[in-house]
């Protein structure tokens, strides 16, 4: 499928900027932040005092007359899946970026970090359904495809159902995978499906927010459209009762999100559309490396 020139230009610009950030900010951070998938046999070597006696190979020891142990190396290849929210709320933003644009840049940074480590990378786009799935695969062409899909894909729905995305992962991922879920997590009932995924896979919730969502400015009578349902509501933003009700609703939604994320027991990264988006990733990798 041929893409419009403006999309190709965006893909190239995003590739250039993210590859530069990966080479400068993330050098070695991603590689060391995650454990490999297991241990593989490397070689036999002669036993030295202090080695674990359980690693002694008795057949080799019997043949040579000297104690030898099995040496194992960690498998460093790690599969990465980028799960990105493309629901209607991702189209909100009040500074330089929409939330969806921040998620796209975060996914590109993570994708190139994994590609630099020669790891397979996959993509899952979701709304209130699984919109698009690209199975994990290695190679630069795979990253190009993922970035193209992040920029170009047009969602079929505007709702949000994180649980549906989690259930798809449970069915699709056969081996242990590093999963980054980029979303504002404004949904209900996702805690148990997310927890189930986190038991099998190394799962990180990347929570993207815009501070302007917390408070509506006094700009008179305005028509507001719900980004996910399309419902239009005319309100007087200067009315004290409306402003109090709105702030209470936002607090309730935030508390529900926080409680569900805690119950899910997965790692978390908070990213604001007002701030540097790479910084929280770097800090997360460094915290992982100190564990």
Sum up the structure in keywords.
6-stranded mixed beta sheet, alpha/beta, single chain, 10 strands, 9 helices, 291 residues
The chain-level structural class is alpha/beta
| Highest-level CATH class of the largest domain | Alpha Beta
Helix content: 40-55%
Radius of gyration: 23 Å
Through-space gap between termini: 45 Å
Shape: elongated
Strand content: 15-25%
CATH architecture of the largest domain: 3-Layer(aba) Sandwich
CATH superfamily grouping of the largest domain: von Willebrand factor, type A domain
Record field, number of beta strands: 10
From N to C, what is the helix and strand string?
HHEHEEHEEHHEHEEEHEH
Q: Main sheet: which strands, in order across?
A: 5-4-3-6-7-10
Mean pLDDT across all amino acids: 84
Uncertain segments: none
> How many helical stretches?
9
Show the helix and strand layout.
Elements: H1 5-24, H2 29-33, E1 38-46, H3 58-64, E2 68-75, E3 79-85, H4 99-116, E4 121-126, E5 130-137, H5 140-152, H6 162-172, E6 177-183, H7 191-200, E7 202-209, E8 221-225, E9 232-236, H8 240-264, E10 267-272, H9 278-289
Notes on the structure:
The structure is a single chain. By secondary structure, this protein is of the alpha/beta class. The protein folds into 2 domains: 240 residues, Rossmann fold (3-Layer(aba) Sandwich), CATH 3.40.50.410; 37 residues, no CATH class. Helices cover 42% and strands 24% of the residues. Helix 4 links the parallel strand 3 and strand 4. The longest helix has 25 residues.
């Amino acid at each position: 499928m041929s893409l419009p020139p403006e999309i190709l230009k965006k893909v190239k610009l995003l590739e250039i900027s993210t590859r530069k950030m990966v080479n400068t900010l993330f050098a070695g951070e991603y590689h060391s932040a995650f454990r490999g998938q297991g241990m593989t046999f490397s070689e036999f070597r002669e036993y030295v005092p202090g080695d674990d006696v359980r690693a002694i190979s008795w057949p080799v020891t019997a043949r040579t007359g000297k104690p030898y142990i099995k040496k194992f190396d960690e498998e460093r290849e790690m599969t990465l899946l980028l799960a990105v929210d493309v629901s209607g709320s991702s189209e909100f933003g009040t500074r330089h970026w929409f939330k969806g644009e921040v998620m796209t840049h975060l996914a590109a940074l993570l994708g190139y970090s994994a590609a630099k480590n020669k790891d397979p990378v996959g993509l899952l786009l979701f709304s209130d359904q699984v919109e698009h799935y690209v199975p994990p695969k290695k190679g630069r062409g795979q990253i190009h495809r993922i970035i193209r899909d992040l920029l170009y894909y047009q969602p079929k729905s505007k709702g949000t159902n994180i649980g549906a995305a989690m259930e798809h992962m449970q069915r699709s991922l056969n081996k242990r995978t590093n999963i980054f879920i980029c979303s504002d997590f404004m949904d209900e009932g996702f805690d148990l499906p997310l927890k189930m995924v986190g038991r099998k896979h190394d799962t990180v919730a990347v929570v993207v927010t815009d501070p302007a969502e917390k408070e509506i400015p006094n700009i008179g009578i305005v028509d507001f459209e719900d980004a996910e349902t399309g419902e239009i509501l005319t309100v007087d933003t200067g009315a004290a009762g409306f402003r109090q009700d709105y702030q209470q609703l936002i607090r309730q939604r935030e508390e529900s999100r926080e409680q569900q994320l805690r119950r899910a027991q997965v790692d978390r990264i908070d990213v604001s559309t007002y701030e540097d988006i790479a910084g929280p990733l770097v800090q997360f990798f460094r915290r992982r490396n100190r564990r």
